[in-house]
């Protein structure tokens, strides 16, 4: 029997005056999955997340979160959500442990409960040895893990994470991915916005690519790569301005010319490279790689920088 989605939007719209930030989108987030929002700056990701988090009223359309209407049942919904903002907003006047305990009291949880919960979360976040330290000296990765631990103090059914690993080094990112994967295994539903394509491929069961307030594509990472890219990409690098795509235009399903290279989207990169060499094409360097979500993202949203 089908399970009702935790988040269901139909024609969801958000306007700020004459500006339409979210333009009538439809989406469904299923219980127990990790769902991602990808998109350039200004695509409407944060506006959509704020509506789901019940901190920004919708301008139009329908929205159900945990089976409730955020406009009517906002406090009830927020009590069952966990929110990890893009910027850590920890209380530097409190210790690591106190940040968890005080936050738990905001949900009306008893002192005994939040004390025990803090012990569990400190262990989960691998911060037990720093429990009574001040927050300020912690590394960026430790602060991020503490912020995520704090968002779990009320045992949320749905966890919203806005750019959870921005600014972290690779080791800290991978440790956070492990923590988030464990949460998903425990049945917590995750909604994630991220600019890291590898993060989306690692964490998300399904995702949407947003651009200009609309949903440009939706599916699993593998489905999106299969639909909008090719199995492999051949990168041919040349001195700037010296690349000539004419000899290789028929070697792939799609060709993209950049200032210092030519990208050939193909099912067999090595065969395309051999064919290019046979035609006298001699790049400075070449690389055959698998297609990634980044290829999909750039095809759907373009390479122009959006501020």
Strand pairing plus helix content: what structural class? alpha/beta
Report the CATH C-level class of the largest domain. Alpha Beta
Helix content: 25-40%
SSE string? EEEHEHEHHHEHEHEEHEEEHEH
CATH homologous superfamily of the largest domain? P-loop containing nucleotide triphosphate hydrolases
* CATH fold label of the largest domain: Rossmann fold
Largest sheet: 6 strands, mixed
Number of helices: 10
- Placed side by side, the strands forming the largest sheet appear as 5-6-7-3-8-9
Strand content: 25-35%
Give the overall shape, derived from the CA principal axes. globular
Overall structural domain count: 3
Mean pLDDT reading: 92
The value of Rg in angstroms is 23 Å
Label the CATH architecture of the largest domain: 3-Layer(aba) Sandwich
Low-confidence stretches: none
Secondary structure: number of strands: 13
Kindly, what is the distance between the CA atoms of the first and last residues, rounded to a whole number of angstroms?
45 Å
Domain ABC transporter: 7-237
GO molecular function, one term: ATP binding
Pfam families: ABC_tran
InterPro entries: AAA+_ATPase (IPR003593), ABC_transporter-like_ATP-bd (IPR003439), ABC_transporter-like_CS (IPR017871), ABC_transporter_ATP-binding (IPR050763), P-loop_NTPase (IPR027417)
């Amino acid at each position: 029997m089908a399970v009702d989605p935790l988040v269901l939007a139909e024609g969801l719209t958000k306007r700020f005056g004459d500006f339409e930030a979210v333009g009538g989108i439809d989406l469904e987030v299923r219980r127990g999955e990790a769902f991602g929002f990808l998109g350039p700056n200004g695509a409407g990701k944060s506006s959509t997340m704020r509506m789901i988090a019940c901190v920004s009223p919708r301008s139009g359309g329908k929205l159900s979160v945990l089976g409730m209407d955020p406009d009517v049942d906002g406090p009830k919904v927020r009590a069952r959500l966990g929110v990890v903002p893009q910027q850590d907003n920890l209380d530097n006047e409190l210790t690591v442990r106190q940040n968890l305990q005080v936050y738990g009291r905001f949900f009306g949880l008893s002192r005994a409960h939040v004390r025990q919960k803090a012990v569990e979360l400190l262990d989960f976040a691998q911060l037990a040895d720093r429990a009574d330290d001040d927050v300020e000296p912690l590394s960026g990765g430790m602060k991020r893990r503490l912020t995520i631990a704090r968002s779990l103090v009320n045992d949320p059914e749905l966890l919203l994470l806005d750019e959870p690993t921005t600014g972290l080094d690779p080791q800290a990112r991978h440790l956070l991915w492990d923590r988030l994967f464990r949460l998903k295994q425990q049945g917590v539903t995750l909604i994630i916005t991220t600019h890291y394509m590898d993060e989306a491929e690692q964490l998300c069961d399904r995702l949407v690519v947003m651009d200009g307030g609309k949903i440009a594509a939706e599916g699993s990472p593998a489905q999106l790569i299969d639909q909008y890219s090719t199995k492999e990409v051949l990168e041919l690098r040349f001195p700037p301005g010296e690349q000539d795509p004419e000899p290789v235009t028929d070697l792939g399903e799609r060709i993209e010319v950049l200032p210092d290279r030519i990208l050939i989207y193909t099912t067999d990169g090595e065969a395309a490279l051999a064919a290019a060499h046979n035609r006298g094409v001699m790049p400075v360097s070449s690389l055959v790689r698998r297609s990634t979500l980044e290829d999909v993202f750039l095809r759907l949203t373009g390479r122009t920088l959006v501020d």
